[in-house]
Amino acid sequence: MILRTLLPEGRRLLTSEFLHGQRPNWSEQECAGLVAEIERSISIEAFCEVVERASSSGQVKAEADGRLAVEIHRSLRLHRREAADVGVWRYPYLTMSCETRSPRSLESRASP
Question: What's this model's pTM, rounded to 2 decimal places?
Answer without folding.
Answer: 0.72
